[in-house]
């Protein structure tokens, strides 16, 4: 792939990863066509092609910064639309690794507006670009070309022809797969004689059940703006309660394999009673639902190794969850979509290197790697986890031992907490966890006291 010959690029998938890739490519191609199987709604509405949009989608601060760099002003637009900005750790009651976390002054912020709102804001900005054309209600069914070069994408308008008929080819010098975790691109590549990527997966069986609620006047007196209860080996159920735009809340109940949260009214409420503290169950008693309960079970970490050598064609790239999908409990996917778009921009603009398909794909894979290391790295230790990347490495045992000590200190030591959060939020490389000051506190420092009960007020207010 050279940018000079890539006069027409096609991006398949109109979610954040695809939209942001199209935005970046529009600076290099004469025309970018964005193909989406859904019809885009006019406003911030749920979409059939994105079933996960019924569940809380936090945007980490690394993702906010990347998004702002790509689309200046977007954070102000999200704020104007009411997307709440929640401080960590001050604003939320958090239970992680079996401990409550001190609510000291915030060192990071997450945006907790609904996924439809975030998608709509990004879509509105990106699709204003006259170089980007959308083809909606149309799905990609394969690639055109051969194992050496992709020459376009096979498309079919939805609902107009019986399956297998009505296909046509849209010619392109570059095809980007942004169709999400269910991507069929490995089969598309095989069909043109190319080599599909090796697929790594690791899943804990985590299941979500989520519901939106109207805020009540009494909620204004709550001493928190969110609750985050992370399951562990001894505690199979978790919860995420976060504010949404439009004076609403979103509540996720989650459970590992064998402890999946029910999606019926009574089961949902009873499940909340299995959390390590009754605070969410008590909140639910008075809560006013704003819609039905939705379940979700496809939460495996999946990485397609397009970065590894193989007989794959020039002119084909994968990004977003089509490349690397994460256990959603870490809240990384949107941030990685934005960071990947920055990596694409930088790889295409690098004056020192010809942006071959392989180089650009490596840059995209590298952008997803820190999040993969966190998500798959932590999930390996979840009892009952299954996958083909479970093989222990020599370094795993001492690193796990160190991480266990670090997390015990992160709850009560604000500085360790800050560094730990910064790594989890993809602001800082994981090497920061082993910096001398942190290592000293982890290896030789005493274990600081963590709250014994959920801290219902920030420390600044509790006095
Ligand atoms: C339950 C759940 C909760 C999550 N919570 C968070 C969170 O808190 N924070 C966070 O950052 N991330 C979260 N994620 C991850 C986040 O949803 C993804 O990272 C995000 O959607 C970006 O993915 P994407 O753009 O690659 O793909 P998707 O959003 O899955 O979009 C793929 C798009 O491709 C289209 N498409 C698919 N196939 C075709 C085809 N053949 N032809 C044309 N179009 C096609 C689809 O209609 C869709 O529009 C969560 C995920 C899940 C499952």
UniProtKB/TrEMBL annotation:
InterPro entries (UniProt xref): FAD/NAD-bd_sf
Coiled coil, from the record: none
Pfam families: FAD_oxidored (PF12831)
Identification of the protein by name: FAD-dependent oxidoreductase
Organism: Streptomyces gamaensis
Phylogenetic lineage: Bacteria, Bacillati, Actinomycetota, Actinomycetes, Kitasatosporales
């Amino acid at each position: 792939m050279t940018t000079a010959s890539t006069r027409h690029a096609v991006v398949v998938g109109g979610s954040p990863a695809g939209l942001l890739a199209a935005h970046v490519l529009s600076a290099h191609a004469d025309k970018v066509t964005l193909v989406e199987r859904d019809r885009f709604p006019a406003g911030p509405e749920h979409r059939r092609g994105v079933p996960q949009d019924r569940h809380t989608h936090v945007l980490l601060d690394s993702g906010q910064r990347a998004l702002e760099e790509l689309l200046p002003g977007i954070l102000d637009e999200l704020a104007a639309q009411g997307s709440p900005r929640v401080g960590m750790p001050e604003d939320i009651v958090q239970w992680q690794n079996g401990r409550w976390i001190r609510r000291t002054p915030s060192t990071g912020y997450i945006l907790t507006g609904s996924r439809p709102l975030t998608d709509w804001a990004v879509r509105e900005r990106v699709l204003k670009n006259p170089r980007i054309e959308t083809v909606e209600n149309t799905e990609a069914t394969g690639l055109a070309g051969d194992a050496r070069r992709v020459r376009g994408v096979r498309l079919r308008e939805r609902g107009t022809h019986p399956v297998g008929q009505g296909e046509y080819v849209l010619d392109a010098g570059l095809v980007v797969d942004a169709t999400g975790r269910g991507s069929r691109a490995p089969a598309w590549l095989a069909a043109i004689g190319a080599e599909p990527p090796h697929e790594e997966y690791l899943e804990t069986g985590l299941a979500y059940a989520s519901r939106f609620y109207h805020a009540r006047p009494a909620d204004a007196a709550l001493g928190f703006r969110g609750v985050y209860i992370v399951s562990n080996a001894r505690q199979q159920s978790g919860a995420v309660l976060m504010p949404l735009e439009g004076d609403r809340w979103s509540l996720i109940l989650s459970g590992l394999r064998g402890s999946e949260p029910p999606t019926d009214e009574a089961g949902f409420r009873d499940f909340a009673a299995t959390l390590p503290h009754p605070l969410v169950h008590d909140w639910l008693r008075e809560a006013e639902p704003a819609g039905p309960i939705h379940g979700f079970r496809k939460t495996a970490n999946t990485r397609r190794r397009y970065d590894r050598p193989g007989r794959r064609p020039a002119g084909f790239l994968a990004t977003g969850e089509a490349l690397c999908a994460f256990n959603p409990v870490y809240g990384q996917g949107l941030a990685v979509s934005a960071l990947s778009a920055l990596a694409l921009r930088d790889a295409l603009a690098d004056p020192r290197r010809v942006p071959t398909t392989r180089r650009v794909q490596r840059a995209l894979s590298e952008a997803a790697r820190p999040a993969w290391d966190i998500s798959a790295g932590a999930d390996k230790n979840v009892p009952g986890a299954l996958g083909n990347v479970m093989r222990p490495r020599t370094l795993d045992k001492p690193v796990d031992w160190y991480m266990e000590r670090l997390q015990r200190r992160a709850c009560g030591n604000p500085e360790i907490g800050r560094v730990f959060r910064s790594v989890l939020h993809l602001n800082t490389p994981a090497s920061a966890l082993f910096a001398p000051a942190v290592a000293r506190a982890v290896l030789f420092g005493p274990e600081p006291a963590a709250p014994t009960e959920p801290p219902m007020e920030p420390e600044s207010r509790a006095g």
